[in-house]
Known about the structure:
Layout: H1 7-12, H2 19-26, H3 30-54, H4 60-114, E1 131-132, E2 138-139, H5 141-148, H6 159-171
Antiparallel strand pairs: 1-2
Helix pairs in contact: 2-4, 3-4
Amino acid sequence: MSMTITKSKLLKLPMMTSSSTEGIKFIARPSYLLLITAGSIFVSEMLIMLILRLVTPLPPFKEALIDALLLTVSVFPVLYFFVFRLLNQHIVQHRQTEAEKDTLIAELHTALDEVKTLRGIVPICASCKKIRDDKGFWQQVEVYVSAHSEAMFSHGSCPECTEKIIQAFEDS
Length: 172
């Protein structure tokens, strides 16, 4: 199984953008959240106080109950659209980013597990080009490299060797 992880795939992760990103950036600062919350409560309370002044006088308990009910009904949509909905989008986006990051990490670990490398000094015969392994046995280059990497060999001959083979064939 071959894992290919491209540079664009790695760079894509932190660069996620969407139409909701602008709204999320707006609420990223706590001062904005406080301003929206306090402002919506203040404006709503002022409007409710004006409405209650226009209505016939009520006992304090009923006035407080109506005030709380109207304040809740008027403030909740503002908080939902400007705060809760954007925070929820931010949480969903963060979860998606985390899931993509975890997937990428898993792919990187899988790719890393599949990598076989040749390292260090490889003792090779100057004459026959056999390689000595860790146990002291001499092996053909193809056998040694295939055992220590994912490389596979296909045999052919270079132009110089082809010329030598043809020459030897013609001489015999």
